[in-house]
Amino acid sequence: MGIEWGRIIELWPEIQVAFYQTLIMIGISLGVALVIGLPLGILLFITDRGLFWENRPVNSVIGFVVNIVRSIPFIILLVALIPLTQLITGTTIGPVAASVSLSVAAIPFFARIVETALRDIDKGVIEAAIAVGATPWMIIKDVLLPEAKASLIQGITLTVISLIAYSAMAGVVGGGGIGDLAIRFGYYRYDNTIMIVTVVILIVLVQLIQQAGDFTAKKLDKR
Amino acid sequence: MIQIEQLSKTYQTKHGTVKGVDDVTLEVKTGEIFGIVGYSGAGKSSLIRCINLLERPTSGTVKVGGQDLTKLRGDGLRKARLKIGMIFQHFYLISQKTVAENISFALRAAGTPSKKIGPRVDELLEMVGLSDKRNVYPAQLSGGQKQRVGIARALANEPAVLLCDEATSALDPNTTLSILRLLKDINRKLNITIVLITHEMNVVKEICDRMAVMQGGRVIEEGRVYDIFADPKTALTKEFISSVVSFNVPEEILEKCDGTIVKVLFKGEVAGDGIISDMLQSYPVKGNFLHGAIEYIQELPLGIFVMELKGDQADVSQAIHYLEQREAIVEVMEHGN
């Protein structure tokens, strides 16, 4: 199993395309996870017992739905959501189409991460804000989010890395991307060169994201 | 200022219901510093948290400035809380915000126009002596400084009441003293009513006007701090007092004494030693001082002497009677042989 350098040059355009596809999938699904998963995670937290928006029914329903989506294997979700994908994007093939399923998987994943991050905040700080007479919105904006900032950034890092792993499966529905390239060439065609190159790209990508996440989290934390 | 009536708070636990606060009725007058003392688990923390409804009482009412808070919910309760400041044992500052931002958070809660926030923050920082720490994060402050920020935040909206939940319990003795002085200063200058809970009797002795002692969710003793120090009624109160004002005579010394051991207490300006010498001259008894001190509580002297009285039983009891007539409080600790 040697590396044939010629093969890399030959397939370089394809690798580049796959790389962009991966970025598109992760970009879209991360964006959706942030926009929907963050409020959902906050809602999960503040409606829990003993918190300032305590609401058992809302909390149970959201928690239940989140658990259901999270328990479905991604590959099944990918196929099951084909009709929804068709409805939203008008197609079922390509990175944008694959982003629908990735988003659906990423929302509850990130929501739970947000909830856990908020749970780590000292309850006393929230209580002090209540005692001061702060509105629920102020507590969310000025207490919960700033206090959980560092762990939220770590959570985003974790989400992105999980999405990279999930996106490899997007090939099943013709989503494309680096992971898909690795499976198509490396796994099905025994093309070791492409497999190694794509895996190296993935490793470098994950390392960079992790380091960037750690750095940002540390830099922003004032504790 | 604060009327607590028949307040109870029960908690549901795995082992059934627990009464945190059990039928407490208290009144705190405008401008006074009221201390609630008790060991942990006595219910004092639950009680103070019921005053601003951080915990909703199971039954009973809490009136602050005439307004029954237990009738309020949501935004009404939130607005009422703007006028009740609170500080905590562990300060509970927003760690990701600067000192100034922590204080302006409280001001924004009250809807203060942004133009007025800056000057008001400066004013508050000046009051608590932290003007140079305006843009510093809490992690860079000492415990005492954090509590000062907590005080500034609590006072931001000019509350009528300040609640202190073990505010000095995490601080060293010197810092405790400086925070207590600050609280007393604020109380005098702003005429703000302060309720504090603590397990440290010296805190009460230092700044409180009146106090209550709690045990098992109930108030077992209540009154002016001076009166309670002079004449504690319950064993628990005596125990608390002995932690700051100790009159214990070593056992070996007591064993050597064969006379009657008495503890004599003089309140206020009564010149205790003069009365004792009068007594010794008027009755055929010999007196031996074993212990003596004059404590100052709220700037009022409290003279306490432990002495051995020797002589005829009848003479000794007449001598004790004489002291009582001269307004001393006499407690016979041990009868003579």
TrEMBL record, chain A:
It is found in: Cell membrane. Its main location: membrane. One of its GO terms (biological process) is D-methionine transmembrane transport. It is a multi-pass membrane protein. CDD domains: TM_PBP2 (cd06261). Pfam families: BPD_transp_1. This is ABC transporter permease. The lineage of its organism: Bacteria, Bacillati, Bacillota, Bacilli, Bacillales. It comes from the Bacteria. Residues 19-209 form the ABC transmembrane type-1 domain. The chain crosses the membrane at residues 20-46, 58-82, 88-111, 152-178, 190-209. Belongs to the binding-protein-dependent transport system permease family. CysTW subfamily. Keywords: Cell membrane, Membrane, Transmembrane, Transmembrane helix, Transport. Gene3D superfamilies: MetI-like (1.10.3720.10).
From TrEMBL, chain B:
Residues 2-241 form the ABC transporter domain. GO terms for biological process: amino acid transport. Keywords: Amino-acid transport, ATP-binding, Cell membrane, Membrane, Nucleotide-binding, Translocase, Transport. GO terms for molecular function: ATP binding; ATP hydrolysis activity. SUPFAM superfamilies: ACT-like, P-loop containing nucleoside triphosphate hydrolases. The keyword Cell division does not apply. Gene3D superfamilies: 3.30.70.260, P-loop containing nucleotide triphosphate hydrolases (3.40.50.300). InterPro entries: AAA+_ATPase, ABC_transporter-like_ATP-bd, ABC_transporter-like_CS, ACT-like_dom_sf, MetN_ABC, MetN_ABC_transporter-like, NIL_domain, P-loop_NTPase. GO terms for cellular component: plasma membrane. Belongs to the ABC transporter superfamily. This is D-methionine transport system ATP-binding protein.
